[in-house]
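Budget justification note: compute hours in this period were largely spent on complex prediction jobs such as the one shown. Inputs:
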Amino acid sequence: MGQISFTLNGVATTITVNNMDTPLLWVLRDQLGFTGTKYGCGIEICGACTVLINGEPEKSCDASIGEVAGRSVTTIEGLKNDPLGAKLQEAWMQHQVPQCGYCQSGMLMGAFGRLKAGESRASTASGLSNICQCGTFQRVKEAILSLPGVA
Amino acid sequence: MLSNTAKNGSLVLGRRQFLAGAAAAFLMPVTLTLSSRPAAAATTGVGAYIRIDDANTVTLITGQTEMGQGIGSGLAQIMAEELMLDWAQVRFEHAPVDPANYGLPGWGLQLTGGSTSTMMWYTPLRTASAKAAYRLRAAAALTHGGTPDQWSLVIGGKLKHTTYGEQTFASVLGQIGNTADPATVSFAGTNRIVGQPVRRLDLAGKVDGSAIFGADVMLPGMVFASVVHCPIITGTVKSCPTSASGALAVVNLGNAVGVVETDTWAAMRIASSLQSKVSWSKPSNLKLLDSPTLSKAAQKLQTAAAPANLKSFETAGSPNDKLGQLDVTYKTPFLAHACMEVLNATASVTRTNGVVTFVELWLPTQGQSFVPATVRSVAGLSSLTDAQIKVNSMLCGGGFGRKIEQDYVLQAVKLAVAVGKPVKLTWSRPQDFRNDKYRPCASMRVRMGGDVNGVRAMVYRNISASISFQQGANPEDTGAVAGAVNLPYAIPNKRIEFAPLPTGVPLGYWRSVGESYNTFAVESAIDELALSLGQDPIDYRLRMLTGDARASTLLQTLKSSPNYTGMKAGQRGVAFLRGFNSYLALALEVALDSSSRIKVTKAHYVVDCGVVINPDSVEAQMQGGLVHGIYSALYSRVTFAKGVPSVQNFSNYRVLTPRDMPKVTVDILQGDPTTAAPGGIGEAGVPCVAPAIANAYARLTGKRVRELPFHPGMTMSDD
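Corresponding output:
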């Protein structure tokens, strides 16, 4: 049991948690109700739980809430607050990327993190390693490559 | 989009809120008489498919589950066409469990599977919508004046009269109860929305995180649970601890132990730690749960003269006399469904004087029809009526057949009964992989004789773990031979045989079911024969397809496509499928990487699925079918060692990521909307992938691969 403060989608947040080892994923989902971030594998493979921590794409299934103290977390619910994030979401709509949609939060956050860090569209499109069992990969790539005003 | 969307990242779904939403709107009293329905259902009379609210938003209420295939939008397009709606005013919503109204026409069951949704609903829904259009005109006459014939629909959910001007649907709803269905139904007959690549209605919530999947349901006072099953599949609980440090509750669920906690992670962790502390009853016959043993048994059944429960289909001519060119056996493994959203279910029970009087469920489910019986199978709940069981069907994060099953639903109900609070059960990924209802393993021996004009004789024997045989329903499992029977090819002498392989491995429906293995065998074997006779694979098939114009048109279209001719002939493979009431041909090009592993570098589909509701969705299903087909053909399998499944997580169940995706193109042959019926597309994209890869590989290397997967044992980190 302990108190922890961090920034969540730009909002200063202080919460009490039962266990500092609890992964950020489950604090977001079960305690804070930010259910856009998904559980897929729990072992940092599938990417469904990807969020940004201090601007870096991270698998939230493996980041303990304790590690997040004092840091800044961006989830899919906060993506629209960034102009590039909003552009990315619009490209996803234009290309009708999602099928079931379950993996798309992680797919979007992974792509956003790379683009935001200055990676090229081509490198982002080919470098993503998120799993999508509906098989939306071609449209993921097309949506990323279509982004206006991004290198 | 679905009405259950979140605001600010979370949403509490309460019963009161649900009712309030429904009360504000108006349900169209459209009568649907479906001859194929059971008689009792047909007399129910009042359909509830279309809801129009005060803001003139028109919502399709559908029994079909949206699990990524775009069915909610597709069916809403059919409605929107007849009601001349503006696409922006259209929504869809999952129906309550009510098979009499929402069950598949033709099956009477409320489930989503077999690529039947559009196939079975196209005409009934079009009819219901056309009737609704007439009744809105009649209601306009009653509300404003004139006769129904003087009113016409205007695009945007409006009605128009030369004297009374334009009125919205919403403005005439007060009189709808005083109208009746027309004597004859007339259809809009346009292609304003049907056949157009309109934007799916469920996208916004899927790009901003607000879409609520089953796994995302939150209720006031909810607790979180997870489960652990016996490490040996199908084992049951003999005895288990009644508590665990930190856990709110430990519950014996019969086939598993449930742990209830204040968050899912804690529940999963404690459940996992309990596995070694539970006393498990192991299944009695481990030989039926052992892959090497099953493999030998299948081989024996392949060569036996008359295996137990042997059934023959489509016997014609004297096939045994004309064989000789080919005698080969193809093998396919057990597969897991591996939906991105693990199995989960949320349940809440209400007690009156200590007795359970109401059960409410929030489920990702493809099998609504089966849920009430599942609830009633729980001790103490057998007398609940349908009205005392409420099911909220949530978005499914993938289904692929797994979410027809009821095992996870049953566990959630038991947990809610045990703890007396709303419970959300979430399986861990390892539990999901290791307690699946697996795609049956299969062995297919194909004997053929033929010449340059085609296959003259075929004896085909499928020995496979059979779903219906296992369930005691039917040893003559027609699903097990789907893809080997009803072939479009003219083969004058043939016999198709099936005998079930007894196994204890739990089996289930996996995207494209029988075609997922039989099409691999049939389309590989025809290609082997064509290659050995020096024949072009498309021409060879065309010579056997003279009796099926759609099939020949499809293959000729493929052959003349620049996407086909642009592939390197020595690395190119082809396969063809007539199935799910659709026709589909696939050509793909393969290459070998530096480790001599196959990579698919290009793929091109030609599809004729009759009436096309949304070409963008057809294309999406082909792209997705290719991905499903590639991962299962190249990498993945589940084996069992005396009941212990090999698979643990995605780490040893290799699937695809963006880097694996080849460029895929899709040509859709437009059916005639006035005469053609729609076929299925959700599964059709999968079966041709494995044989097309095998056929391409044979051309590239001279070697024939007859056992899937091509590269077993690869992990997600192998390139």
